Amino acid sequence: MGYPLVPGYEAVGRVISVGAQSAARVGQRVYVPGARCFGEVKGLFGASASRLVVPGHKVIPVDERLGEQAVLMALAATAYHSVSGGGTGAPFAPPDLIVGHGVLGRLLARLNVAAGYT
User: Fold this and answer.
1) How many CB atoms lie within 10 A of CB 89?
2) How many Å apart are CA 93 and CA 31, to the nearest integer?
3) Which of 10, 22, 38, 73 could form a disulfide with 34 if both were Cys (CB 3.0 to 4.6 A apart)?
4) Alpha-carbon separation of residue 74 from 21, 42, 70, 80 (angstroms)
5) CB neighbours (10 Å) of residue 13?
6) Sequence ranges of the domains in the chain
7) How buried is 39 (Cβ within 10 angstroms: 0-12 exposed, 13-18 middle, 19+ buried)?
């Protein structure tokens, strides 16, 4: 990372221009992941910029109803993965206490409440 650094890791926005071979449509709401864990997608910083130039194969269309909250997809998946058995198919026991701050901790708490835990 160099200076100046534009913050922002993952982004949700609207497509304003597309290349000739892009499957995206102008006006379409898309999610741009920033983590290296999404296949061929390389890490992305600068998502807080007013405009991003992103290869079309690295954008994921999202439902209009999600709006800008679609940016929480990766964090919500992380929180869900932590309480769903980590891909083993066997859910973890309900937690006695959730220790976490920020968005991930809040999403984890909400998932537990949605699952009926108090």
Assistant:
1) 7
2) 32
3) 10
4) 27, 14, 9, 10
5) 20
6) 1-62, 66-118
7) exposed
Mind listing the pLDDT tens digit for each residue in 86-115? 667 666 777 777 777 788 888 888 888 887
Beta bridge partners of 12: 31
Say if residues 105 and 95 touch (Cβ distance below 8 Å). no
Q: Which residues of the chain have pLDDT under 50?
A: 36-38, 41
- 56-86: b (≥16 Cβ within 10 Å) or e: eeebeebeeeeeeebbbbbbbebbeebbbee
Token pair of 108 as six digits: 């984890």
Judge if pTM exceeds 0.90.
no
**Tokens 């919500």 sit on residue:** 76
How many Å apart are CA 97 and CA 117, to the nearest integer?
11
Cα–Cα distance measured from residue 55 to residue 71, given in angstroms and rounded to the nearest whole number = 18
Tell me the chain's radius of gyration from C-alpha atoms. Answer: 17
